[in-house]
Amino acid sequence: MRKLVLLGGGYGNMRILLRLLPNNFPEDTIITLVDRTPHHSLKTEFYALAAGTTTDKDVRVKFPEHERLNRVYGEIANIDRKEKVVYLEDGQTVSYDDLVIGLGCEDDYHNVPGAQENSFSIQTIAKSRTTFEKLLGLPPGSVVGIVGAGLSGIELASELRESRSDLKIKLFDRSERILRDFPEKLSNYVKAWFIKHDVEVIAKSNITKVEPTRLHNHEEVIEVDAVVWTAGVQPVKIVREMDAEKDRKGRPIVNQYFQLIDDENVFVVGDCASSDLPASAQLAEEQAEHIVKVLSKRWRNEPLLEKMPPIKLKGFMGSLGKKQGFVHLADTTVTGRIARLMKSGLLWMYKRQNDSQ
To answer: What is the DSSP secondary-structure string of 281-302?
Structure first.
């Protein structure tokens, strides 16, 4: 039997499973999914879990079931490309013929002293639970510093405000304005929401040190009761340490088929893969679509396309609590209640689609 192994049950590999199951892969092929948890986690919703406005159950989707789908749970210790074997920390081994690495990312602390040790995270479901316990356990009047005003930071700050109106929230943004790479109308809308809901946005910030109860912003020392870090990501350690050519962010460089440039049997998808496009669930899913096409052609012994079509992202969506949001699609910006309903609808469709496996 030929063995296709998927490392990580994130958005990219879930899309691969959605396309291949139940009968779109050869009968002489077995698929093995390796993940640390027995479910797919909706990472784009971890901010709500951390803020206490969504339950743990609401950010999970069951993995599909199939007679030729094996599910292996555990932490990956090593990927041996020469022997085509994946080693897990508990001693399990998983051999492969084709491998898709979709292990996601972790926080990038940019070598800021104390950032890793003294801040909380929303990068995994387990870390989001820990952040929830910390934030929801704070006494009234406590100060929460959120470092990083990208989409994750914005959504966390707004959701936390809705969950805990008694907290003082400070959102630190390196830029002059929120979402500086997008239309000013969008930035102004988000800024106005934060002003109305008493979330302090500190622009042009530069966090140089994090202590348990202090943030150093330039030369200023700011007293805080908790810090959540949302200021950038990097591939997980196991990927950063792989013996493969990487870009400046530590992501393996892939060809147009999302294969390692020196190994046609190893694909990389999602936050792990080098790309000029911003990391997102949408990007991972589009990359997965390409990988499925490549695998299908190889299984049928058909030549690959000489040039793969470029990936074009449709835009992005964000929420400001449960009632307001913003959407930027095809150079069109939508804000307010309609935008929030659009995001909720997309999430509902995603869960329904994947739960139907």
So the answer is: HHHHHHHHHHHHHHHHHHHTTP
Whether CATH 2.40.50.100 fits 109-231+316-347: no
Using alpha carbons, select from 163, 137, 139, 144 the residue that is nearest to residue 229: 144
**pLDDT (tens digit per residue) in 24-81:** 999 999 999 999 999 999 999 999 999 999 999 999 999 999 999 999 999 999 999 9
The token pair at 228 is 């959540």
The yes-or-no answer to whether 2-36+74-106+233-313 and 109-231+316-347 have a common fold is yes
Query: Which ranges in the chain belong to alpha helices (H)?
Result: 11-20, 46-51, 115-118, 125-136, 151-163, 184-196, 237-240, 281-299, 337-355
For CA atoms 32, 75, 229, 351, the dihedral sign is: positive
Top-tier CATH class for 2-36+74-106+233-313: alpha beta
Residue identified by tokens 């022997």 is 83
